[in-house]
Amino acid sequence: MAFVIGSAGATMLPQDSNEDIAKRIAPIGQVRTGAAAAADSGASAGGARSGEQVYNTYCAACHTGGVLGAPKMNNAADWEPRLAQGMDTVLKHAIEGYNAMPPKGTCGDCSDDEIQAAIDYMVADI
Question: What's this model's pTM, rounded to 2 decimal places?
């Protein structure tokens, strides 16, 4: 305890250790930007996310049930007209967006290769 002497008389104040002060003023959270955010976004230590990871995180919401005409996973009737245009066109539409599908299906940090992997995953059993 320390004593502070003032005009109103002596007052007792607690004497905190540096450790107590550090705990009291420690941040309650973290903000990650740039490389740290990309590292936390699901990419493996080796780099690219798998097609399954991308599909489950970004694509499944629409492509599982065919929302707004999205081709359903491994549904030949949905995919064959698209695949007939060529994989380059399918990939271009997926990257740039097409009809109701937003660019990269909302995966703003997906590489073109990860988008291709997601497409490959969705048509693997056709």
Answer: 0.65
